[in-house]
Write a structure and sequence with these properties.
There is one protein chain. The chain is of the alpha/beta class. Helix content is 35%, strand content 17%. The chain is built from 13 helices and eleven strands. The strands form two sheets. Strands 6-7-5-8-4-9-10-11 form an eight-stranded mixed β-sheet, sandwiched between helices. The protein has a three-stranded antiparallel β-sheet with strand order 1-3-2, with no helix packed on it. A hairpin with a 6-residue loop joins strand 6 and strand 7. The longest helix has 17 residues. The termini are far apart. The relative contact order is 0.14. The protein binds adenosine-5'-diphosphate (ADP) and magnesium ion. This is AAA domain-containing protein.
Length: 324
């Protein structure tokens, strides 16, 4: 079979390509990059609007149970809904649960560690969402071996994903051990997920320090990781009664740009139980609306923050608010 070599656009951020020219059908001749196929992707073509150097998004926090996995599911689904080919990776090795948020738990045959160990090909490990053809999940392995994530293996998988996707959303586990370090290390963009409480804030601050000093971008003296803040489980009622930190308190403390504020909502648990990301709910759900606003802001729109005021409690004011 005759293979046609098609030149690829060469970007200054293509530094990894030379190292993994044997994968994804990409070859390096005289410092120019070629592919043997006009569409190397088993997943479909990727948009040209996403800068190649800003594709890997980590959703991280330091502290556990703040809403990272809930957020990763909605951010990935929301980006895919906007037409971006999106892959979401569960980095919580040994404790996978992102698959449950998509109702995919029975469809996983191969996982992230299988892919790292070359037990399967990329398209065998990716699980396609049934509602959203732009969205794919790479599940975490259930292995107890915390050293299973190898530096060169993660790098190779992420590079292959960069070639095939517009965005790669990495759901970080809690703490600062292997999975969370890997998810943070390769990121171009970090969404720091925080609850309005001091312990969560302190852990987020620690994570900001780690990203600034230990990410790949920091080690290579490149443009820093783009960090922004997502506040989850925000309750204006508790802020008003003095039982919770306000948005202003949190922002002043962390000093990073605000991407979103997701209200405390019982919709979240219902969604997880039904295997659907919160963002799939209609506009009766404040949490879903807040995630949609977050996606629009992420994509550069100027969207005002909502759901910051306590809800009316009297019957009359509740009725009035319906007609506003
Ligand atoms: N906005 C929210 N309102 C209410 N509960 C939430 C919200 N976000 C997350 N939760 C709940 O918090 C718990 C932890 O969420 P999860 O996304 O698993 O956090 P993490 O990945 O940081 O450990 C879950 O029980 C989830 O349902
Ligand atoms: Mg999680």
């Amino acid at each position: 079979m005759i293979k046609v070599l098609v030149p690829l656009v060469k970007s200054s951020n293509f530094t990894f390509v030379g190292q993994r020219t044997s994968t994804a059908g990409i070859y390096n001749f005289n410092n120019k990059f070629y592919t043997t196929n006009t569409n190397t992707s088993p997943i479909g073509s990727v948009a040209s609007t996403v800068p190649r150097n800003r594709k890997v998004i980590v959703v991280t926090s330091g502290k556990g149970g703040v809403g990272k996995t809930t957020t990763s599911a909605s951010i990935a689904f929301g980006l895919a809904q906007k037409g971006f080919k999106t892959c979401v990776i569960d980095f919580d090795i040994g404790l996978r649960n992102l698959d449950i948020h998509f109702g995919m738990e029975r469809r996983i045959v191969f996982d992230f560690i299988n892919l790292i160990n070359n037990d399967c090909k990329l398209n065998q490990a990716l699980v396609k969402d049934r509602r959203n053809p732009n969205l794919f999940l790479l599940a975490a392995s259930q292995t107890k071996d915390k050293t299973a994530l190898k530096m060169d293996g993660v790098e190779r998988v992420l590079e292959e994903l960069r070639d095939n996707f517009d965005y790669i959303v990495c759901d970080s586990p809690a703490g600062i051990e292997s999975g969370s370090h890997h998810a943070m290390f390769w990121s171009d963009i970090a969404i720091i997920t925080t609850n309005p409480e001091l312990s969560s804030l302190r852990d987020s601050d620690t994570m900001l320090g780690i990203i600034a000093s230990k990410s790949k971008r920091a080690l290579e003296n490149k443009e820093p990781v783009d960090v922004s803040l997502l506040i989850t489980r925000y309750s204006p009622e508790r802020v008003a009664s003095g039982g919770m930190l306000s948005v202003k308190d949190i922002q002043e403390n962390l000093g990073i740009k605000l991407l979103g504020i997701i209200p405390e909502s019982s919709d979240i648990l219902d969604c997880t139980n039904l295997g659907k990301p919160t963002i799939t709910l209609d506009d009766n759900s404040d949490a879903a609306e807040a995630y949609r606003d977050t996606i629009d802001r992420f994509l550069g729109e100027n969207v005002p923050f909502r759901f910051l005021e306590p809800k009316p409690t009297g019957i009359l004011s509740k009725l009035m608010s319906k007609f506003k």
